[in-house]
Structure formats: structure tokens, C-alpha cells
User: Fold this.
Amino acid sequence: MPDVMEFKPGNYRFIVSPGGPFSSGVTPMPGFVLRRVRFARPVPMADGFAFIKAHLEREGRPVTALAACELRSPAAMTGEQFQAFNGEYLKTLHQWGCKAGDINPLARSNLAPITEVPKEAMFFAFTYTVPEAGASGDFLISGKPEIRDGVTTDRIVGGRDVSLKGLETKARFVMNAMRERVDALGCDWAAVTAAQIYTVHDIRPLLDTVFAEDNISQIGLAWYPAWPPVIGMEFEVDVRCVRTELVIDAR
Assistant:
């Protein structure tokens, strides 16, 4: 079972991803809920950070209440490019105090769209904690591609097989990881309110199998024709239980 830690400055718990630029998922502490804000149109990262800071201040929340970020990239990156990108991304968060020692508590997703391709890294959405008496059970799980954690060989599940059978193998692996993360946070899979899928491949046949079996085929799956953020990945998913979601024009 993955390790779970408290991030008291943000009023949430998170699944530890040692050395990673983000955690594997978050859930608010009792008496708090998650609130998600999607930008009406993605905004450049610097503008996004500035908007988030101002928004949290208006809401009477500290910047450390930021619990998750959703990003868009111009293209899938090499491992080295991804590390460099993460270094820049983390500078602002660490300046805000969004870290637990050397561990990064925020959840995250990132993708590289194949249509309406951004010219630079962008913010798509963000999620933060807010107090609500008696509340419990919200969660947000980070984007997870078909890679085995902690291994160096045969890391990509299904390899380069993107046939229907290969995609089903990848999807089942990823969805099992989603369930394991929800369980690790002590949350209820039946409470999932939304799921996002990032792949350039046709997922329609998987609705009848993988996603129907996981009871999320009719909750409004969002499929983004896009690559996961690192070259070599084909299929990525995130899930969440967030009851309050806003769409805001950042202009």
C-alpha cells in the first residue's frame, strides 16, 4: 500500500511519490472539501500561477491550499525535457511553501493535445481545499500512464502494442492503479464524479469493457485526444470526486 502523509498547511493528505514532481493523489482532511476551477481557456503558466494566488486570496485561503494542477504542454517531452520542465514548475510552488520537506504534495496531470496545440505550457485547471463542516470523502488522483513504478526494465505495460488488445491491457493496468490509489486514501471508488482519459487512440471499444466494469462509463468521461507528457506513453487516466467545480474566464 502506498505511503500517505498529511500536508497540514494545505488541509489535505497525499499519496507519497518519492522524488517525484507531484504526488499520486490527494484527499482533504475532515471538515474540508475539494473545489476545482477550470479556466474557460487555458492560460500560460506564469499567468495561471498569478491568477491562482489572487483567487485563493479572494477566497480567504492560503496558497498552500492548492492541492492539484492540470497542465497542457505543446508536445510530449523526453525524460530530460520533462525533468527540466518540472524544475521550473516547482519553483513557484516551493516559494509558496507547497512542499513537505523534499516531497511534493500536490497532485497533477499533464498532457500534450494533438488539436488546438498550445504554443507554451499552460494551466487548464486547479483544485484547492475549502472548509465545510462535517465534510469528508473528496479525492483527486493524479494522471497515471501505463508505466510500472520503481522498475527500469519492461517499464511500459504492453510495450508499443496499440492494438485493441494492447490498449485494453494498458487501460486495465491504469484503472487498477486508480483503484489502488483511491483505496490508499481511504476513499470510496463509487464516489468518483469524473474521469479524464488522455490518448490519441480510439477508446470507444474500451467503454464496453474496462470502463463499464469499473462503473464509470456513464459519469461523463472526458476524452482528450492527446499524448501523455513523456514520449513513449500511449494511455493515461485520472479520476476525482469533486462536488463543486467552477469555470472561470481568467482574462
Notes: The mean pLDDT is 94. The chain is about 25% helix and 30% strand.
